[in-house]
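Structure request: gibberellin 2beta-dioxygenase, Lupinus luteus.
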Amino acid sequence: MVVLSKQTTERYSYIRNCNKTSTFSTIPVVDLSKPEAKALIVKACEEFGFFKVINHGVPIEAILKLESEAINFFSLPHNQKEKAGLPNPFGYGNKKIGVNGDVGWVEYLLLQNNQDYNSMRLSSVFGRTTDKFSVLNEYMCAVRKMGCEILELMAEGLNIEEKNVFSKLLMDKESDSVFRLNHYPPCPEMALDNKSDEKLVGFGEHTDPQIISLMRANNTSGLQICLEDRSWVSVPPDHNSFFINVGDSLQVMTNGRFRSVRHRVLANGSDSRLSMIYFGGPPLSQKIAPLSCLMKGNEESLYKEFTWFDYKKSAYASRLADNRLGHFERFAAS
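Returned structure:
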């Protein structure tokens, strides 16, 4: 595929020959209520770094309530949304992703894993309407619980004796987890030109730097993941399920056994897409390195040890599409 740029009010990216992109028909599906879940999770993390979970235990009421509040937020006038604060990095962002020149057909709200902080941010927009904050907190707690369950099943599937070796990093009171709402508005130009083989990029290709990402979206398509052969496949939307990404930190902790999935979102011509992502991160001081219990025989570590603070600082100083782990690989190609 060829990535092009067109000059409009912003320098957006387009993907050419996108109509030739295949649909990911063999997406791994994990039923968290089944005993084989742990084995399926490990297999999916090794092969794709990505899978879908059903019977996830997150109450549908919490999902629908937060989706409704998110729609209300993104429906507000631009100057009202900006009262949530400019993204530094937390707050409301529009089109610009990060500080390094990345642009996408997206607006977003980035929040901390801290109820008091989020209440302060959102009270500037809505006033002190406590129902909105409790809805957000209920959802985040339920999704974090699901994420910890997945990480513990993952540890069991890897035959790690310490079942909470991954999940304890999310449960730590200093956990640096964050929550993001992404809204991709319909693109009028694409709706008028439905025969074009170009698609507007909503969020450019990247990997997630954290341990695990837990994403739920409405029923609008747009998400694509990159397979090991570098081909891109479209993921069919499913608003009843959650999609799970392996992050860079988990790739390091498994010494490359699990792969951090490269993914992107393409804008839709006629329908808006709303996604809600919980990024499970460790405490800033946490050292990230391959787990010794997963190293076999004389196997060498593929990565230098680093703290989450160091990696986060490096990752956010890069462009989206950069190989963020490249600086931390022991045997990087010269």
